Amino acid sequence: MSDQQQDFSKHESLFRMNMDFAFPYESTSVWLQEMDISPFDLPYIQQVLLESFEDWSEMTESLSIRRNSHWAVVNHEGTWVAGDEAIHTQLEETYFELVQRCITSETSVYEGLSTLADNIEHAGRFCAVPIFSRSQHTMLAIFISILQPDQSGDTFQDAMEATTLHYRSCLYRRFEYIFVSDVMKVQKNAERESSRRSILFQIMQRMHDQIDVDTVLTEVLDSISVLYPTITLQLFMSQDHQSNNPRVKPLLFHPWGEDVSVRAFMDGKLIIQDYSAKDGLDNGVEIAIPLGGKQGVYGVFHLLLSKELREDLDLQLITMMVDTAGNAFENAKLYEQSNILIHELRLINELTQRLNQSLQLADIYQLANQELLNIFKADYCCILQYNEDRDGLEVVSSNVLSISKDVFDIDYGFGGLVYGKKEPIILSDYHLSAKVSSKLMEVTESQSLIATPLIVNGKIMGAILLTNCSPHFFSYDNYRLLQTLASHIGLSISNALLHAELGRMANRDMLTDLYARHYLDEKIQEYQGTDFCGSLIVVDIDQFKQVNDTYGHQKGDKILKKVSEIVKTSIRQLDTPARWGGEELAVYLPQLGLHQAMKVAEVIRTRVATETNPCVTVSSGIAEWNWMDEKVSVDSLFYRADMALYRAKNSGRNQIQMEDRNDRGSA
Q: Which of 195, 518, 564, 659 has the largest count of CB atoms under 10 Å?
């Protein structure tokens, strides 16, 4: 036996025990006969007296005692209840004292009509017999009769008493009928409540067995439809919830007015109202039941039914089902959200690991582009970065080849909108609601878009745009997740920028911002492995120690910076300038020979002599290498350029000397 059956048996035994204790009689009919009308019931039995008189009149209509006689009944206070109009018209005047005497004495009153008043046309007899309760002898009413002379024989009193007892039996039959009706109503309500709880238990069990949000909603919709198949039922959801059930629809808030579903959602209360000519139903009833849980209201069940069905509708059961569905929906939604959060954390962790595998900015942009396309199932992705030199947003990574490497104005398109406002955006349908022109959306024919600013170290440096060709493709969860991922992408970009800056600082001279000597050595070695020739210029500031002694070291540093700037602006972008040591500078010119390098060195010498203040001069030595040399090395090249510089110094300074062929053998 199951636990439920055991509980039912216990309750049944307890009920029988209480019944035996309260009603010890073997027969239920005996127990019913013991029920009686108490003095407290007297103010409420007027209708029972009336209905009993109608029953008595119908049953005694064919009796001889009813012929040419008048009958009536008044309550225990003498107030008219029912009867013939001939008695009613004379009750307050002619028969008042007789009725009061019957009430006071609680005995039957018989009086000849000739003694009552002069206006009585025919001799007869007035009869008033009190009616008492079965057990407490409480006066319930007075049965009145006006008998004709031929009915006033010796046996009229017995006949009157018998007729009164007949009415009394009709009265108690009505009383027992009312009591039994109440008992049956209680039993019916109990059975209905039991059935309701059984149905609700089964529905609750099925709903709580489900952890999928859409399945929970379908279960409650199907359950209500099975109970009431003629009802038109829909569920309006306020959340961003996609359902395969055609009866689940979005709850729309119209600016021109609120319907019953919106009002039920806003108030969180059940609303019932009548309507006419709606959805093929005339003069029906419209019911809106909010679907809510502990954290809020999520939607509204909307029911349309006829007024005839309204009487049979167990609204309490449906309300309990909806409340249960609200809790089950909330639990399923929380479970779904927890899974989404776990999935998002896993995505963030995996994305961060992949992004951290490289510290090259281009690799990070490309990897972020691919990962975002996979995560959001987007059709297109575009990452924009602010380009200071061109004062625009440059496409640094995108799977749209037609806009790759394009530079847009900082206020153009959705990228400019996000960059300018520093806020993310979500667009459901570009063709219907977009007021911003976008080359990305038009070229790809996309309709949905989510975009977020790309922030690095608290400073906005670009934007991330994801698009899809279908409208309403991206959800609010996608919109929120993109912002989270963008922050991690920004962190990876920040690490790459810091790594690049650290590398730049390691390869640069802090004072002159020229490359360091070790970097120059590496570049020359790299070029010597790939090129066929190259030249090296070594520049030395003449009498720089005297400048420091005369003007101070701060002025000397400014002179050194100025000469370095002249060197950088006098060479090509592919040339490599470096601080070789102290006041000596060096420039490597790939794929240039001695005579070409001589022209560059002359430009530098001339500009230094004219653009520095105080005026200084420089001496330079030039050396070259080519692929036909017997020995190609960095040290050899530097040695020969240094020897040429030494000759320039010894020859009077402020001049340029090329390498001596004899130095090749000593290098």
A: 659
